[in-house]
Design a protein that fits this description.
two-stranded antiparallel ribbon, alpha/beta, 276 residues, binds zinc ion, four-stranded parallel beta sheet, Rossmann fold
């Protein structure tokens, strides 16, 4: 069964196109046809006028044409070593199975993981969300796709679709884009897993979560998301977001998806906070 929505078809087509052209997408090497070459020419012209900025140092990327400066690539700290089996945070005690947060909290999602330690990429995420640096999504998505492939292989996840955490419509209009959706689209291009933005809806705005306790976050998120029925549709989902902190947002999304008929819900984020 193909996607019914036009947007879904476009995303699926782009993912197929990306696969045909190699992992790195639009300017992939193998089998580039004429339209692909034209697109590369146009892209190069745009790069000359508006040079792509590096997600780490925010200066024009060197060498140009890359997604990130060569010397900046290793600066953000990747989550490595022993990780929590539930949320994927790095563990201080390598013999432990779960982090302190996951021992105290019963999460709704099955499991998940992130690419970077939040503190090491905080500035980049701020600019991505609040300074209009949507272009950062290309490199972020490349890193997230690689992480997702590893997790799916190691932990035998199944995924029918990527579901970005939705923004409240008014906030999305103010920002001009939903950062989670941009990330999901980039991951989709590289993995071929379709994005579904039509399933999960944010039905009301929530206050900023930053300085709230876990309990306050959960109270604030109650009823914030609604998922349309997925009974006759995709059933295993991966929630995509920029940051995982306490997991309250991912849990609220997972709860709505399970309520609508999902059989499994995992998550993938760009960054994750330290183990509590
Ligand atoms: Zn740089
Ligand atoms: Zn954990």
């Amino acid at each position: 069964m193909g996607e019914k929505r036009r947007g879904g078809e476009n995303i699926t087509n782009r993912a197929q196109e990306a696969q045909e052209n190699g992992r790195d997408g639009f300017c992939g090497s193998a089998g580039s046809g004429f339209p692909e070459k034209m697109r590369c020419v146009a892209k190069t012209a745009v790069d000359l006028i508006y040079p792509r900025r590096c997600p780490v140092c925010d200066r024009p990327v060197r060498p140009s044409g890359s997604l990130i400066c060569r010397e900046c690539e290793t600066l953000p700290v990747r989550v490595a070593g022993s990780t929590c089996r539930r949320c994927g945070k790095a563990l201080a005690d390598p013999t432990a199975e779960y982090c302190g947060d996951c021992l105290r909290t019963r999460h709704v999602f099955e499991s998940g993981g992130a690419v970077f330690e939040y503190h090491s990429i905080q500035g980049a995420i701020y600019r991505f969300k609040y300074d209009g640096r949507a272009e950062y999504a290309d490199w972020f998505g490349q890193e997230m796709a690689a992480r997702l492939c590893t997790m799916m292989r190691q932990e035998r996840w199944h995924a029918d679709a990527l579901v970005p955490v939705p923004l409240y419509e008014k906030r999305r209009r103010q920002r001009g884009y939903n950062q989670a959706a941009l990330l999901a689209q980039q991951v989709s291009r590289r993995t071929g897993i379709p994005v579904r933005e039509d399933i999960l809806v944010r039905v009301r705005a929530t206050d900023p979560m930053k300085n709230k306790s876990l309990d306050d976050r959960r109270i604030s998120l109650q009823g914030a998301f609604f998922a349309r029925s997925v009974e006759d549709n995709r059933k295993s989902f991966i929630i995509v977001d920029d940051i995982f902190t306490t997991g309250a947002t991912v849990d609220a999304c997972a709860e709505a998806l399970y309520h609508a008929g999902a059989v499994s819900v995992h998550f993938l984020t760009l960054a994750i906070g330290g183990a509590g």
